[in-house]
Sequence to fold (311 residues):
Amino acid sequence: MPTKSTKRDLLSIADLGKDLLPILKRARRLKAERRRGVLRPALRGKNVAMIFEKPSTRTRTSFEVGVNDLGGHALYMSSKDLQLGRGETIADTARVLSRYVDGIVYRAFRHQDEAELARHASIPVINALDDREHPCQVTADLLTLYECWKGMFGGHRLAWVGDGNNVHHSLLLGCAMVGLDLASATPEEYRPNPEIVDRAQALARTSGAQLQFYPDPVTAVTEADAVYTDVWVSMGEEAEQRDREAAFAGFQLNSELLAHARPGALVLHDLPAHRGLEITNEVIDGPQSVVWDQAENRLHAQKAILEELLG
Ligand code: CP
Ligand code: NVA
Fold:
């Protein structure tokens, strides 16, 4: 079991630092190997607890399958079924799980809870989405673009259309880390957290990525090589549905908006999609969509992350 000083968490995609590109390369190799039926048991004898406070299809399944592929064992735990749901503290949960398992995957409502678990666990904690970031998603998104663009991020432009929250935050940091230009359009009241923007701009100064912010989707999408959107109402924000749908009304990724991007521009969505709201059927099911590759790449990207942090 690693000691607190040596264990490595993934709370923000920025925590991967210089390892992000090697992780993408490793994920490509793991993907090719899996297709040939080759699995490497890098987690043999290791157990990974997965605590979910919110629903999940992709994250839960891809982590379970990924840990299994690597020869380890994954334990799914709904937070409602743990004593956590009855008031046991996050710190005590972290201390106890650290005595049984080798890593914790945690989908939390609040980033501060994610950080609290990591602070008190002596084993790596991996953020499986919280209200601040979704680093595993964006690692898979970058893997998808890396494959489509033959490893070339520089010279490409990605556009974001939608909410400036968790997925967008990780994308800002991830693009800044790999040197990919990102033009974001968000409604004024759903702009990204300024602290994360500052951190991303600092990373972009090193990589040379250009990060631009617009109130208008057409400007962001113009000349883009790929366009990415996410739901307008994130998990836990259901009470704001009516206000959000009004604020995001002009931000739908439809054929008309996509026509402003470069011909053949890729279409990304982290899923689940609300068809007819943030994206139309025509676009998500159209020839430019790579959303199913993106979803598959969750598996390969997370296996590479697990090998790096727990292997
Ligand atoms: N994209 C994503 O994280 O999907 P799930 O909520 O299904 O895990
Ligand atoms: N922004 C979305 C992402 C879902 C994977 C949410 O937090 O619900």
About this structure: The radius of gyration is 19 Å. Residues 291-310 form the longest helix (20 residues). The beta strands are 47-52, 73-78, 103-107, 125-127, 157-161, 181-185, 211-214, 226-229, 266-269. The longest strand covers residues 47-52.
